[in-house]
Amino acid sequence: MKKNKNKEFFLFRAKFIFGLQVLISALTTFALYRLNLLPMKYFGIVVALIVVLLLLVGLMLLKSKKNGVINTGKILSLILSLAMILGTKYVFDGNSFLKKITGADKDVHLISVIVMEDSSYKKFDDVKNLEFAANTGFDKEGIAKAQELIKKEFKTDVKTVDYKTYDQLADSLYTGKSQVMLLSEAHRGLIKESHEDFDQKTRVIATVQYDEDSNVKKRDVNVKQETFSIFITGIDTYGPVSTVARSDVNMIMTVNPRQRQVLLTSIPRDYHVKLASKGAYDKLTHSGIYGPMESVNTLENLLDIEIDYYLKVNFSSVERIVDALGGVEVNSFYTFSVGGYSYQKGMNHMNGPMALRFVRERKTLPNGDSDRGRHQQELIKGIINKAASPAIITNFNSILDSVSDSIITSMPDNELRTLIKMQVDNPASWDVQTAQLKGTGAYSKTTYSMPGWNLYVMEPDFNSVNNATKLIHDMENNKVIKSNNDN
């Protein structure tokens, strides 16, 4: 019994409590150093503050011991240690987040086992003895890989019934001719060209996946001094954000760190472009089927520019991001109502669901997809402005939870940290300009991904293309630009 009392007494000794504070202070300092987001002057201030607090607490402990009074230094030391533990957790969370989302160099190919929504089949074992409908005409490699992976994971051979087009494949499931299908998630959007309700009518009961190198170009960019461009691709699909899929949002963000200017160049998803690796024309949205670097290389050729990185966002996460920020202020170019939400021309305060509906809408807007692109630019502006406010600190955990599985970039970890450190060192606002590539609506039966289909495309207006190219080149030459985007 006496031993337990002595042990308890030891845990509350001044030396033990102070030693604990020293240890936690060292851990906090190390965590901040490893995070590498604070400029040296601020890092020095933080370290100096930690040392001063240690000295003050040490003096209080020594003084209280000599005077024989209640040791308030112990209480203060424990409070400071607890505060530093919480702060260190934030630091480690931020560090893990940055490592997770940067340096993307793999494309995930996800193949789903799909049944009708009202089907009684719930898991793979329920369908393993059935014949699987599959489009081997267009996705021979993906289906063969899926069969190989299913055999390895589920210990069974899958027999397929082959279809040459995606409308025939979907029809076979809808009519009950087939009970189950194999589908590469990259091609889900191709089915939705003819069956818009495919997501609502069907259900995924199993998946297999494999990775491929993205073939990311290694750029040697000094992001503190040189203008650089990032291709922002927005997907809205089942599976991880690294999954290869159609690109519903296509934007180039060009950043001039010296002039503190950003140019957002929006490209319509239906733009009729020559795919870089195929040498054939297709809709820009379909380029994402072949990986984000296909989109990057295609747009580099179109605009005669270099794109240094890509940033991939699952747009279904927009709702969570906006709510985590406590809502955002977004400019609308029109007054309109859709999906139970009303938007006024000018600034609107939007919560997550309202913002997501806003950036998806195109049918009620005068210029369709072009106006949707402009509204997407406005939402990005709103998110940037709110993220630069104290909301980014007060909602830190919520924001990390919202985006950690919904965003990846090919930008290396050290370069992103350099950018953040630069902003911390100089928190001045950025001048955000916008540009919009224009075009004329047309139809094509010769798109590479869906030959024979009479698909809507947008033929490029090369005046707008050349204007965007000039703006980007001017930024690369360290000129201050004015986009004069009068759409």
From TrEMBL:
<feature type="transmembrane region" description="Helical">
    <location>
        <begin position="42"/>
        <end position="62"/>
    </location>
</feature>
<comment type="similarity">
    <text>Belongs to the LytR/CpsA/Psr (LCP) family.</text>
</comment>
<keyword id="KW-1133">Transmembrane helix</keyword>
<keyword id="KW-0812">Transmembrane</keyword>
<dbReference type="Pfam" id="PF03816">
    <property type="entry name" value="LytR_cpsA_psr"/>
</dbReference>
<dbReference type="InterPro" id="IPR004474">
    <property type="entry name" value="LytR_CpsA_psr"/>
</dbReference>
<feature type="domain" description="Cell envelope-related transcriptional attenuator">
    <location>
        <begin position="246"/>
        <end position="388"/>
    </location>
</feature>
<feature type="transmembrane region" description="Helical">
    <location>
        <begin position="74"/>
        <end position="92"/>
    </location>
</feature>
<feature type="transmembrane region" description="Helical">
    <location>
        <begin position="12"/>
        <end position="36"/>
    </location>
</feature>
<dbReference type="InterPro" id="IPR050922">
    <property type="entry name" value="LytR/CpsA/Psr_CW_biosynth"/>
</dbReference>
<protein>
    <submittedName>
        <fullName>LCP family protein</fullName>
    </submittedName>
</protein>
<keyword id="KW-0472">Membrane</keyword>
